[in-house]
Automatic annotation (TrEMBL), chains A, B:
GO terms for molecular function: DNA-binding transcription factor activity; transcription cis-regulatory region binding; zinc ion binding. Residues 1-22, 166-185 are annotated as: Disordered. Zn(2+) binds at residues 112, 115, 152, 155. PANTHER family: TRANSCRIPTIONAL REGULATOR FURA (PTHR33202:SF18), ZINC UPTAKE REGULATION PROTEIN (PTHR33202). One of its GO terms (biological process) is negative regulation of DNA-templated transcription. Keywords: Cytoplasm, DNA-binding, Iron, Metal-binding, Repressor, Transcription, Transcription regulation, Zinc. The lineage of its organism: Bacteria, Bacillati, Actinomycetota, Actinomycetes, Pseudonocardiales. This is Fur family ferric uptake transcriptional regulator.
Amino acid sequence: MTPRTGTEDGHVPVPADPRHHVADPRARLRAAGLRVTAPRQAVLGVLGEHPHSTAEAVASAVRSRLGSVSTQAVYDVLAACVDAGLVRRIEPAGSAARYETRTGDNHHHVVCRSCGATADVDCVVGEPPCLTPSDAGGFVVDEAEVVFWGTCPSCHAARVGLAGPTTARRPVTQHESHHHEERRT
Amino acid sequence: MTPRTGTEDGHVPVPADPRHHVADPRARLRAAGLRVTAPRQAVLGVLGEHPHSTAEAVASAVRSRLGSVSTQAVYDVLAACVDAGLVRRIEPAGSAARYETRTGDNHHHVVCRSCGATADVDCVVGEPPCLTPSDAGGFVVDEAEVVFWGTCPSCHAARVGLAGPTTARRPVTQHESHHHEERRT
DNA sequence: CACCGAGACTGGAACGAGTCAAGAAAAGGA
DNA sequence: TCCTTTTCTTGACTCGTTCCAGTCTCGGTG
């Protein structure tokens, strides 16, 4: 994800989007039976603009809107929203958890190995083929989660035209984010 | 840290032999060009017997064989083996990393939501259908990782016993009960 | 429209899983 | 065997996240 610096404009004028995906946070909170508070609206707003943000990224974005919000509050809000089904939490290996407001459809993700950028991928072949493992060893499966690993456009470009010095790119992944796998082109 | 130029790249992948996870640890280590040490043999041995173990589980199992081995040594060994392609590391959301000796084939996993038990699942429809997302948003994808979430046989039985059928699909990500382990395909 | 209680936030400490660094101990080729 | 290289031991430390206890506030009620 790209935590751009300039953080949004104070309020979202309901851009008349197709679904209520990007609808007014207030409305969604109410609909979910959750209290409407500033931190919650802010969190939903931020996530709407920057999907796949980490808790910390959300926290700082929220702070830049509201002034000061405790980290704990952000975690609480996120947890509450996840519980209520307003937010989905994904946890790609080797990085902190990321959150997004697109719920309901079981879409998947592509994650960049080098910078951690994440993008949505609609369900693979149209229908969920992955939902039926040939043999689940007796498990009762209720969800299939797919993560595609690869290289995002910009990292790929950087790598191809490389020879470039260590221009401080965005070291998004602090933990071991490089599982050198390759093979299989 | 971005995987900048080279540094620790260029490891020589071991010719993946499907039977490797049954072979003598010593032989495998040699074949991979790694030194043969007691901790390493023990780690591979343990993983052979208990696939999908966490680092901590491996550590304690190894200790019960060798007496005393530092946690750090276990992490080092695991990392070395992963690098050499002798061990694969998986990291299901909400639990610590797990390791297995079955490498080479890109198989997937089923994870039990309530106890964390993990089992292998052979690639879904025979061939990897998941490897080709319809639209990867410009990403260059090189691997697809699939995790099936559900309930393992014993947890399922337990649940059915005292409540209605599995209807509640809530994210049970609490620290799962310990040492509830595997079952093979 | 002030009141009140469950449910939100605050701040700080605590935790689990891993990583880093420096030195002691071995593995194995010469 | 000796010596170099790699591995193991200790122990401090980071990160992301959670737990706790106290304070504040949303929003339903009198």
